[in-house]
# Entry
Amino acid sequence: MSSDTNQDPKAVVAIKKRSRVPGVMITQYVEQLPAGKSTPDFTRKPMPVTVQEGKKAFFKAIVSGEPAPTVTWERNKGNVDDPEKYKTRYDQRAREHIFEIHNVKPEQADTYKCFATNEYGKAVCSATLNVIEVGFKKKGQAANGQAPQDFRSMLKKTVVVTRKKQLPPKKEGEIDPKLWELLLSAPKKDYEKICLEFGVTDFRWMLKRLNQLKKEREDEQAKVVEKLEDVKQIEVKPDGRAEFSLNMKLWDPNSAINLYKDGTMVPYSDDESSKHNLKKSGTKYVFSIKDPKPEDAGFYQVDVEEANVLTTDFRVPAVEFIAKIKDVKAVESEDAIFQCVLSTPLNTITWAKQDSSLEHGDKYEITVSEDKLIHTLRVKNCKKEDSGAFYAIAGITSSSASLSVEADPDGSKGRKGTKSGDEDDLIKLALEQQAKLQKEKDDLEAARRAQAEKDAANAATLGDGGDGSGGKTDGDKNLPGDGDDENKKGDGDDKKKKRTGPLVPDTVIDRGVQFVSGLSDTVANVGERAELSCKLSSETAEGRWYKNGKPLTNEDGVTIIKDGACHRLIIDCCKKDDAAVYRFEAEGRRSEATLNIQDPPKIDSDALGKFTKPVIIKAGETAEWKLPFSGGAPMNIQWYKDDDELLPALNVKIETSDSESQLRLTKCQRKDSGEVKIKIKNEFGTTEAISRLIVLDKPTPPQGPVDIMESAVTSVEFKWKPPKDSGGCPITDYIIERQQVGRNKWSNLGEISGSNPSYRDSDVTPGRRYSYRIRAKNAEGVSDYLQTEDIPAGVLRYPGPPTAPKVVSAFKDCINLSWSPPCDTGGTKIVGYNLEKNKKGTNYWSLVNQGGPITDTKYAVKDVFEGAAYEFRVSAINLSGAGDPSIPCDTVIARDPMKPPGKVTDLKLTSSNYTTFSLAWTKPKEVKGIEDEALGYYVEIRPIESLDWTRCNANPITLTSYTVLGLKAMATYWVRVIATNYGGDGEPQGFDNYIIAMPPPVRPKFKDKNMKTFVVVRSGNTVRLNINFEASPLPEVCWLKDGIPVLKHVTITNSDKGSQLLIPTSERSDTGVYTITVKNLVGQESFNVEIRVTDDPKPPGPVELDQNIPGTVTLSWSPSPDEKRDDRLHYMVSKRDSFKRTWRTVADNLFNNKFTAVNILPGREYFFRVFAKNDMGFSPPSESPAFGTKKEKEKFKVNLPETKCLDFQSPPSFLVPLRRRTAPQGYECHMSCAVKGDPAPRVTWYCNNISLNTNTNYHITNVCGVCSLLILRVGAKDNGEYKVVLENKLGTAECSMMLNQQRSLEQLSESLATMQEKVANFQQVVETTDAQFNVAIEESYSVMFNTYCNGLINPYNIELDTRWAEIKQVSLSIETLQALMKNQSEEFEAMKERMSNEDEPAAGQFITTTAQISTELQEKLEDVEEVAEQQGAKDGAEEEAKEEEVVQEAQPLEHGVERDVTEEQEGQEVAPEEQEVEEITGHSGEQEDAGETAEDEVADYIIEGDILDKSLEEELYEEVVETWESAGSIS
# Structure
């Protein structure tokens, strides 16, 4: 497709495709999009909007596409061109296209379309605008003189349903649907209050259905609401507003939130001056009604889209305060009481302070009087902070008073009440108001009756009748009750205006008899006693009782009692027909109540006693229960067995009649035993009766395991456990059978009593093994058997050792001992003990009890000598014999008891930490006859909160120091030390103060001296800061971030030696200054660490270039997206021009988005890069376009000299030649050289004149002019001459070397001997050279003298310096060779010693090292010989041309100077050409200069000073020869 087609937005191609955003359609104009281009699309499309008439509406969209699309708006009906009504704008920051509609009208409700267009396509989507009309418009358009429009167009305008689906009406006997709605939105603590308002006293049966409805409502809410909590019902606040609120987080913030009152949508705004207001703060939504009126009462609901989130009932009762609350002054710790009296009874009112409502609890006690008129608030245990204003709010009326709390001057703590007024006055007001309400009720009843009679008279005469008399009808039940909603003040006034019958004259002032307390509804059971009572204000007043409007007397089966002002009606035995409405009248006053008679289920006591007796049957028989009952029908009967309901089945038969129920269980088994229960239930109550079923059967087998009590030579005894189930009756006997192991016959040993489950078999054969069967027997039969394991008889089993004997007391002639029996008796009973003694210092144990075994576990040893030390041990004896002895007891001395020691002295604490104390003390002094010597010590501690001392060491310690372990950190302890000896414990010695388990106090300080104060972390990585500190006692560690506590996702781990801060996955928001504060009782210390969480910066935007001043260019670029998130981000600019191809940094640390580059030369192109930098590193560069200006050439003529064409071609040559190699056999050999040449030469390797380039046994490489050859394993065939030949069109170059194979130590020794000979020859050469030098010196001095006479001394000085330098160079070579030979000699000695200690690999290594050393020495000797030969040749040549040189040196010095100047000028003329070559090739001559400099440094390194003495040189040579002779002797 041509480019013209691509640019045509009206192209023939129209490819339809859908966007990833639902509801967006995209049309593509081209078949294939160019690279980097895209069609328009919506990142976020406009959302439907519902707005109130007169408000402002917004549609917002975010679009994408390359190039950036153009956004336009349209509507289905009409246009959007009017700028006063419609406005479009673009928010650069949010990148949103916004379409605004000002002052929305109902006719603007329509579907609006948004178009996004660029040259490659367009995208379109739509959104609807819904308008809520304000007010009721009953007049049609026809009434305004307009022609009626078609019905279809009218429907389009009513796009918003302003009414909510109505709740179903309340049905008789069912719960009001409004109550369910309120409970769904209310917290559980308000259930009882809400149910009372609807007359429901017990709501527990509603909870199951309520939970089901709640689950359905939550599922509905979950579609639009992410989180919903803290729902509060409507409540009138002290400022007069009625408010209800909730915390709500929406999935879509643009979701419509609608407010309904009684099913009708209510417009609201965020303006506090409006009637209905919504205030949003974060996720909290608060709806309020300003200045609520009675007409604002209703059923309010809040919906999000179609889901209900809150329901509340706003009731405005017609109530006023007869007595308002009054100011109270109270003393601290007293109770303050506020009371008020209402004009209409209310169950509850709202008590509040300025900022919150008050609820009944520990602090506030809210009570209501019986008549619901007096409401009381008690503020318990007043404190200063309780002072302030308190409010009582009833409906929309409120009363306020202040509480002033003063300090208690006496400091008493007793609680007494301070009331806001006289209680008697309030009660009197309440009684008056109750009488007033009763009078209004009576007047209303009279008016109703009069109106009814008048209507009847009118119906009879069919004409206008006179005023009917207000006669009373006793049977009238339509009397308003106390607190009825119809008895509101406002409603009462309206009804009075409509009355036509006469009322009580206004002139009546005397109130007459009043009810102090009226009748109350009563519930009684059939056959029980019922009582109705009331109290009048006068004791002399008489009254009458009525039942359903008929008078009652004592002859009607009731008892009427008058006790002063109290009147009672008693029914001794209630019947069903006693249920009625009872009324008491006295002097025109009346009170009514309803008596409800219930008939719950009842069970006769005799039948119940018979039923509760257990039913005992045998297994397989039938159990039967029968229970008569009475009570009101219908009756529900349920039978239970162990709390499981019994249903009719194959073995369960249930028969029930109106007065009796029977249960029959057939074929009962033992497992059927248990509790049997019958539950009888009707609408009035439930009763239960419990019986028990016992099924008798044979017992279960006895229980194991069988314990073997004795296994002796003559008897076997064992025991077992009784059966788990005795079968319902006691175990009478156990049947024992025995079988000898190896035989099949079981023999019956008889029966034993069932009370003792053990058996002793005395008829056994020693060495035999027996097995026993045990069966349990009861009255119902014999159980299955329990079989024992094989029990051996006659096997000798000795008992174990008893415990070590304990010294009870010791005297000079007697020692009393005791011990405990052994745990292992050996299978038989213990018959006695043997006690042995050992005199300290001997190895002989003698038996103490010579007369026979000791039958007790204690013994007094009298065969002792005074002052002697003894040890004792004991062994147990059973039927098999004596067992092993116990361990010996502690050494005891036969002497009279000692006196307890005294107190220890100088008790001190030597050290402590968080878990230990270290104590030291001095041994107490011995006082003869009073305090004996201390033989040990006990250390005891007691926590400060405990009263018991704990002994730290169970056995006495002999040292006068001890460390107490296992202490609790920072706990406080009392510590004491007790000295002890054989006479007992001495007096304890403790500290005057308690000791804290902690190290000595140390002020907090940080240990690490090099702690980092700045840390950079890549976003997403873990941040871990370890801060080590030292502090005592344990400090409090606090971490702050920028002065506030760290967030929850930061983990802090503290120990006694440090603290760690851990952020598992860091984010940029974690950047900040973290402060650790370590604080204890001694002081505190803080340390700051700045943590910067960042990431590699994103590159800056496109770079633009602008030249305002010649020779400069200004760069500007868009900031990096990370610039707002990273305050340390800056920029760096680098530059490259067309002349020098390298990038160079021209600016850094730029914190703005502009930079001006200078020194911009004309005729060159410049390129710039801008990097974003932060603490993490560089971003990718943002590159600028090429920038350049043409060089303006002036018209002038320059005569340029002829320039020579530069030819960079050169013949091949070697930069680094090959070196001779000596390689051991079987090892690898590597040789290399460096070459140059232009064009690049062809490199060929030869071995003994045979080409190696195609030989695969050699690895040949040529990398950047470095040619290498590698021989992996050197063999005999690899010896010879290796040559490298370079060839190009300009010439050829060669370089060769010899490869000698080092095969053995003998050859190496020969090579070393050869070198020693060469060294000797070289020594002769040096001596000859020294002699020639001396001759030259003499000749030079002679010539210098002659020349001096002739004025020619200067040239000879130059020649002398030259000769002197040559001699010094030779001297340096000799000295270098001597040092090298000395070092290599040391290496030979080390290798020789290693070879004597190691094996063949070490020998190979030695051969390799020796070969390398010999090669290097050979090269050095060759270099020195070459220098010596050159020096000798040069001396010969100089002798021949001596006269000619003298003549040349005699020329004037000015000629030399002029020549040098000329050469210098010639070098300056060539310099520009060399510079031009450098710029073109990108290389410079610095390397050559560097090489010359290196040579100069080498020359400077030559030893300065006098020539070495001949004696010194001889000594050096002798040392070298001796060293190499010793090295050569290795072989």
